[in-house]
Amino acid sequence: MTAFLDASCFITGTDTGVGKTYVVSRLIRALRKDGIDAVGMKPICCGDRDDAELIYRASEGVVPLNDINPVWLRTPAAPYTAAMIEGRTIDLALIRESFERLQSSHQRVIVEGVGGWRVPIARDYFVSDLARDFALPVVVVVSNRLGAINHTLLTVESIRAAGLECAGIILNRSDAESADVANTTNRGIIEDVAKVSILAEVQFAPS
User: Fold this and answer.
1) Is position 195 annotated as part of the catalytic site?
2) CB-CB neighbours of 137 under 10 Å
């Protein structure tokens, strides 16, 4: 699962709740087990901070939680929405400073976006813009179910339109989803149509 990770990367998803944090945590743990100084980053959390805490533990506590997650909004909504409700402005400079500090101090930084690829952080600034600022190859986590092909193609097209490399796709199937025509054929169709490699298939239910 880590063979493709010869550099830091940005993990995005076709939606929220598709298993991004699970994938990020597994990647970090695998890299660290191989002797690579890998840490994670969740620039923005909305609602609870559970995702950042999971990444903190996967990183074995070698960096402060506030560097892993520099912006925490308590409202469970898109960052732009949550910031408006809380009367806050998201500190993009703080996020960039935290990323640069991690990148300069560790061999790999695995960054997890918030929600999907085009979730707004501000009115005119999206998760896609954050990934472009970080200038990292992008890996897409996809919920392996009916509808995955459309969601994946739209996300991959948008990544490429932003001038970024889509390094590959990780398919995640929830334990609650039994085998069906869609989730048993999605891999082949996505690789054929999107011209992107499926890096791994995992199975994880958020519950």
Assistant:
1) no
2) 18
